[in-house]
């Protein structure tokens, strides 16, 4: 668990990164950039817990601090550590430290498994030792070499004509630094063909595509050449939950999105994500989000109106 740093004590690299994020993310929110898969995040106040399906990514905080929950695991970090997510995970994130004068500022780069595999081959990085798969999320100490590579990428926003030629080089260096780091084997095993971790990644991909369908764990296990007991064991090691719990998270998050963005009622949303019983849907929704669907939607809309007015 990392502790928040005083902005005045930041390294010159972190100070430069914070200044760049403030320039290119002038308002609160998630800001896409001219560099594909790179986003900048700003928040001027501590936030409410946000439920989302986090895609594989590197997140580096330049200022402020954040907490991420995966199942019962809690990851709290600041500018001294970075977060790496290696597979799609249903998480709950919350900005802990941010003010209008010293906002929370974060760099995010989505990771491509194919590019990671190419880097492993081209750099001739050794295959990871046969280890039991571990969490698909971890905190690593942010070293100067990684920050240098990130800054080279962010600086390209000032010279957009250089992005097509130079952004891929900076991204490759970022991947290289991650793979060479203390926890690089965690990324390596996710993209290593036929590893247990890579098989679990395939299961996660199937669940994302078919979350509204009935879950037949025996069929999935057979497809990835695992026993049902082995699949359950390794799936929980990577995601901190069972396949059924993972599917439930996907269903409920999608239902919440449908009600908020498409203005459908709870019964319709529940049916569209695979629930046959409205009462079961309402119970499980309340358990995850802390309120029944209608009340939760009113609270979310009121929160959106406050943000738009501020």
Overview of the structural elements:
There is one protein chain. This protein has 310 residues and is α+β, with helices and mostly antiparallel strands. The chain folds into three domains: 7-189, Jelly Rolls (Sandwich), CATH 2.60.120; 192-241; 246-309, Homeodomain-like (Arc Repressor Mutant, subunit A, Orthogonal Bundle). Helix content is 48%, strand content 19%. The protein is built from twelve helices and ten strands. A six-stranded antiparallel beta sheet has the order 1-2-9-4-7-10. Strands 3-8-5-6 form a four-stranded antiparallel beta sheet. β1 (29-32) and β2 form a beta hairpin. α2 crosses α4. The two termini are 32 Å apart. Residues 201-299 form the HTH araC/xylS-type domain. It holds the Pfam family HTH_18.
